[in-house]
Amino acid sequence: MSIRPITDAEFTQFQRFIFDAAGISMADAKKALVTGRLTKRLAAHQLQSFGDYFKLLSSGDHPDEVQMAIDLLTTNETYFFREIKHFEFLRAQAIEARNQSRPFRVWSAASSSGEEAYSMAMVLEDCMQTTPWDILGTDISTRVLDGARRALYSMERGRHIPTDYLRRYCRKGAGQYEGMLLVNRQLRSKVAFAQVNLNMPLPALGQFDIVFLRNVMIYFNHETKRQVVARVISTLRPGGHFCIGHSESLNDITQAVQMVAPSIYKKPA
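The structure corresponding to this sequence follows.
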């Protein structure tokens, strides 16, 4: 059974679908991406057109398929210790907080497959001594969250992990896992992962000392950025810090936080 090429009208439907679901503004140049990622789903349901697949998603009868389509259409690009200056800042803040009685809490708000959250965990495990801490990693995609919980990565993806951290916090794969690394059990136990859609009202997550929301806002339009940032900042403790991607800016987005360094903002105490 042949699948008909996606039409401009059908592509527009999927642009609206992913915007409504995740707040992502998908550029017209992404038509080939949509075709490539969804073609197998059309085949699985024995559908010949993308319009028919959109009708299936819109019917309300297939919530698991809707989640699968969201998973396929959301971009997840990350690696360990990406944008290293943020992890140096995290370390400095964690050391400063070592004497506090409450846990030091950090949120990786678009954690993708978990590398960012586990990078945070390596830093905190290294420097927090007896002060309790915990990390929450969230993403809209259940597929990448499943991978994050497994914590199994190619050695290539771990090439930016400091050698000492690699030795202390990761296990090298052998046999069928040759060329892989596994984040150790102790570190995994301190990182929780949950599905959260930043484009919707947030569940009760508690308050955080630091939130990373990096390299995500480039996919949002201005109004979506404003709403997402307001939700995320609401979870920051007074005096807490908010880190965004180095190529991103909060200009004209919010005045609820003040820049203390490029891509690092602080919520007034």
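The beta strands are 104-108, 133-139, 152-154, 170-172, 180-183, 191-195, 208-213, 236-244, 258-261, 264-266.
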